[in-house]
Amino acid sequence: MDELLKIEGLSKAFGETKVLRGVSLTIRRGEFLTLLGPSGCGKTTTLRIIAGLTEPDEGRVYLNGADITSLPPEKRGVNTVFQNYALFPHMNVEKNIGYGLRLRRAPKAEIAARVREMLALVKMEGYEKRMPDELSGGQRQRVAIARAVIQKPELLLLDEPLGALDLKLRQQMQQELKNLQKALGIAFLYITHDQEEALNMSDRIAIMSQGRFVQVGTPEEIYEKPASRFAAQFIGQGALFEGTVVSAENGEVCLECPEGRVLAAAREDVRPGEKAAVSVHTERVRYGREPFPGFALEGEVLSHRYAGAILLTELGLAGGRVLQAHSAGAIHSLPRPGERVHIGWESAQAAVIAGEESER
Amino acid sequence: MKKRSGLAALAPLALWTAVMVLFPMGYVLVLSFLTRGESWGVLWRFTLENYKALGDSANLEILWNSLKIGAYTTLLTFLLGYPFALAMVLQPRRRRSLLLLLVVIPFWTSALMRVYGWMILLRTRGIVNDALLGLGLIHRRVKFLNNMGAVLFGMVYSLLPFMILPVYTSLEKLSPSLQEAARDLGARPFQASWTVVFPLTVPGVMSGCVLVFVPAVGMFFISDLMGGGGSMLLGNLISYYFSAGKNWPMAAALSMLMVALTFLSVHVYRRYSGGEMGVF
């Protein structure tokens, strides 16, 4: 396997707080890997350890097979795009971008040429003499990227680089970052708490929670086959049904739960009689006047809510739980609020998660 | 409408400036062009003699000594204060406020008292000499006081906080990620400090330099007490002419020279700090 960076058993505590509890991960050459998790889950600490800005209590970091755990940041050959960009306020754009080359005493002509090249790469030509405080957030972002990329790292670390931008700009920058990564052919380790960003950009996603990796996989794997309840609830909009497995055959599991009986795609480690949960995404929930084969789940239409591209319907289940579904078609042809309906979905489109609820 | 209310808000400031700054300055300025009275006070007769007398070799020598003491004091407070401020910023937050308090506490007592305190400690028959003798580090009592070294020591001691505080403020404002970014881009620790941290604290350093240099040139009680009155500085000269010398116009002219020096250093400060951050 073409492995670029490997972290092994990283642990870190700040005082009494354990931020990392033994995380291991491999980043492949040229891949876009995202660390996704809520704030405080340890993703920034992981990145800082890789950059050499924080020392781990335990564990090692290998780059191209060489142990770099105790190397200072300036000797690592990885570069970072900081969360607040950290542009040097007393240097103009050109000086910021050329900083690393100046430290290495590169010839002036080479610095000028490389800086121009970088400015073209991030589409900032003509801004050479601007000071950082004369730039917009998006422009600062570009300069920060150029300043890191000019070092020709094999791995670029990005700490929530789009966090401070507004939605429209963020979406545009997502695409640009992805294109940039492909054009440069270098690996990106990207940190975000925004699952949509992660799903859009990544080759692989590592979901973090409380200092551990919960699941590592492609966006599709993460979305379709959540490995835990945390992963299921963190990715996408959806619902979890807790219950006991009654059957597992023909590629389907059937789960008996307080709300009724539901189906999901089978998994080898889920056997009849065991506790499990079924996770289904909101956009896959169907409802109607006819029962769904294999399902025994009923509810009452509570409301239809217009949400632009879709119509969001709330369904009241037995026990008072509310399940959301998407509705298609004209509003007058849908079951009205107060009507009893049957609920179900394609079993292949729902995932089953093994084990008791308490495990995470 | 908005503009007018803005001007109204400035009124107290304008009043304060007039009463506390312009009026006394104007008084001293006028005084500096008058003739000294026979025995006391001034005669209302215009003259430029006082300014001409500034060029006397005795006065020039005192001016030169004052500037030297001011420059040395500024340099020493910088060399001591910058590392101290840097060390403070690197402490955990709680210890930082404690250190800050320790820097400020001396201000709770009069500077004069503190200088007397040092005199008691440093006297030839004082505690420091006793201790050094007792420890066998010296065999004969050392004359610490009544020389230029003592004056410099007193100046540095009194003015050090004025260097530490602005430097500390400018260091504290820096985001630690700037230094980290420099390291990340290949700078060794010293390079990161020199190319990123230091340039960004220059305005603080310049504030500190002005706050130290100006009083160092003018302060008279330190050289009076620790220098034993043998070393005249600009401040001593002014105080002499106002009191024992009974030449108010001359004192006023010397004061105007001090004011000019102050303006000059503020101008230099503005020039090299981009006019932002810091105190002015």
Describe this structure as you would to a colleague.
The complex is a heterodimer of chains A (about 350) and B (about 280). Chain A is built from eight helices and 20 strands. Chain A is an alpha+beta fold and about 350 residues long. In chain A, strands 11, 12, 13, 14, 15, 16, 17, 18, 19 and 20 form a ten-stranded antiparallel beta sheet that branches. Chain A is elongated. Chain B starts with a helix and ends in a 7-residue tail after the last helix. Chain B is mainly alpha-helical and about 280 residues long. In chain B, strands 1-2 form a two-stranded antiparallel sheet. Residues about 275-280 of chain B have low confidence and may be disordered. The radius of gyration of chain B is 23 Å and the shape is globular. The chains are: A alpha+beta (about 350), B mainly alpha (about 280).
Structural descriptors:
heterodimer; A: 360 residues; alpha+beta; 10-stranded antiparallel β-sheet; 6-stranded mixed β-sheet; 8 helices; 20 strands; 23% helix; 37% strand; elongated; B: 280 residues; mainly alpha; MetI-like fold; two-stranded antiparallel sheet; 2 strands; 74% helix; globular
Could you state the CATH homologous superfamily of chain B?
MetI-like
CATH topology annotation of chain B: MetI-like fold
The helix-and-strand class of chain B reads mainly alpha
Query: Which two protein chains have the largest interface (Cβ within 8 Å of the partner's Cβ), and how many residues from each?
Result: A-B, 23 and 18 residues
What coarse outline of chain B follows from CA principal-axis ratios? globular
The description of the largest β-sheet of chain B is: 2 strands, antiparallel
Strand order in space, largest sheet of chain B: 1-2
- Assembly category: heterodimer
Uncertain residue ranges of chain B: 275-280
Strand residue percentage of chain A: 35-45%
Helix content of chain B: over 70%
How many DSSP H or I helices of chain A? Answer: 8
**How would you spell out the order of helices and strands of chain B?**
HEEHHHHHHHHHHH
* Secondary-structure class of chain A: alpha+beta
Helix percentage of chain A: 10-25%
| Average pLDDT level of chain B | 88
* CATH C-level label of chain B: Mainly Alpha
User: Counting H and I runs of at least 4 residues, what is the number of helices of chain B?
Assistant: 12
Beta fraction of chain B: under 5%
Number of strands of chain A: 20
